[in-house]
Amino acid sequence: MIKQQTIQNSVVTVGVGLHTGQKVKLTLKPAPQNHGIVFCRTDLSTPMKIQVSPNIVQDTKLCSAIGTAEFKIATVEHLMSALSALGIDNILIEVNGAELPIMDGSSISFIYLIKSAGIEEQIAPKQFVFIKEAIVVTDGDKVAKFEPYPGFMIDFTIDFPHPAIKDEDSHVQIDFFKDSYIQEISRARTFGFMHEVEFLRANGLARGGSLDNAIVLDERKIINEDGLRFSGEFVRHKVLDAIGDLYLLGKPIIGKFTAYKSGHELNNRLLRQLVEEKNKWEIKTLDTNDVATANLAEEYSKMNTELNETAEILEE
Ligand SMILES: [Zn+2]
To answer: Which domain holds residue 242?
Structure first.
């Protein structure tokens, strides 16, 4: 039986928010089984807690922000992406500000942080959302879709008419039961266009943004001196974001996610559509002793073990 996981110890990191530019402290704490992923704003006079679910996403203009009318936590998607990749089901995430730290603009720092806390298997079985029938949302020519698939496959296509974003680097398809999130995705950084950065700054946003935590493009080229970390870094970052956005469901998905020019808003609309269309999916567990799910259970454990080993290699 594939079991739920939490972290072994509390860990702390400090960084700046991409948009607010404020220094924030992020603390990850272990949580009991069936607790889920819960965020807590500790800077408020009455600390407020909120459990992740598709309906707590408030604002998707620049990042995925969660919260209520009273409080908000922005840019949760990179940490959520790392939690999804490492299979963390139960955790308490405390932050003393309105935005999570941006770190280097990717999710690798969060992977290190979670790994340094240690991962602990719990007793309760892990619950997966199995997609049984296609679920689709569109916005003009943008598409986001779930379909049945034995694994967790992401097929992502971006379309930015820009000389530095080549067509051959605009599409990626990865089955995360087979390929490594840490190697293929975790180091892909946030990106932005110079004209947008100027507009955002004028509106009091992107204050914490710099070439240390984002790839910035002017009209013709990439401004960062060292260029890209790997080919297709742009589309790979969109995959990193999508994994984080989809994990706001609170449970891992067994299925295929296909996106054409999708972003935080459409990813969240797809999750809300899934919640509506209850007949198109079911909650299942994976068990090596159950004929129906044995293969998937084996693939999942193998992937999980390899991910943990890769993270250790990277740390050395
Ligand atoms: Zn992002």
So the answer is: 128-291
